[in-house]
Each structure stands twice: as structure tokens, then as C-alpha cells.
Recover the amino acids of this structure.
């Protein structure tokens, strides 16, 4: 799932990231209690570490590129453009993944049975 959040220093980043995740989950139609539970888990139980997985780094770079292109003509602070691009990223298929769309995968993982679109 693509989640865009401001980059702030630790430990504040966990709270900012959790709020961003919660907003995306709510936008994807997950129940509010599920979104809140996931955000709380991020704040209370996340440890950040260096990533040395080349495949994951490639995926993050790809998402970053699409984000930059999507925001190329947006004004600084344009939250509507940011939300639109984030939605587009979550509806972009991933190769060799089932389900291919991040939005569907999140709904299957966290939503009630039959909630995937």
C-alpha cells in the first residue's frame, strides 16, 4: 500500500506515518476501528531499521518516481493532489503479485470477508 507522509524526525515520524496510514485505510473503505487499530500498532510497536533489500528498494524508488510525476504540476501543500496521486498509486497493479492491486490486497488482508473490489 502506498502511503505518503511528511518526513519528520523520529520519534514523531511514527505518529505522522500512523496518521497517514489510518487515512489511507479509511479512504479504502475499511472500518474505522480497523484503521485505528493499525495506526495504534504503528505508534506502539514499530521499530525502524535500515533497508538493504534491493527488490524492496527498487519498489520504493518506483513508487517515489510515480509520486514525483503525479505531483509535477501541483502546488506545494496541495493536499488534494497528494491524495489523488496516493489513490492512483494504490490502484496501480504490481507485477507478480496476487492480488495485483495494493488497494485490493489491503481490503483482503484487513477487511471483512467479501470486501475486496
Amino acid at each position: 500500500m502506498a502511503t505518503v507522509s511528511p518526513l519528520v524526525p523520529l520519534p514523531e515520524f511514527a505518529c505522522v506515518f500512523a496518521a497517514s496510514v489510518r487515512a489511507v485505510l479509511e479512504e479504502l473503505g475499511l472500518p474505522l476501528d480497523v484503521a485505528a487499530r493499525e495506526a495504534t500498532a504503528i505508534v506502539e510497536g514499530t521499530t525502524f531499521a535500515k533497508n538493504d533489500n534491493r527488490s524492496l528498494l527498487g519498489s520504493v524508488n518506483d513508487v517515489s518516481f510515480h509520486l514525483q510525476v503525479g505531483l509535477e504540476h501541483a502546488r506545494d501543500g496541495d493536499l488534494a493532489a497528494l491524495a489523488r496521486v496516493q489513490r492512483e498509486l494504490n490502484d496501480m497493479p504490481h507485477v507478480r503479485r496476487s492480488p495485483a492491486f495494493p488497494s485490493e490486497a489491503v481490503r483482503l488482508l484487513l477487511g471483512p470477508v467479501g470486501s475486496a473490489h
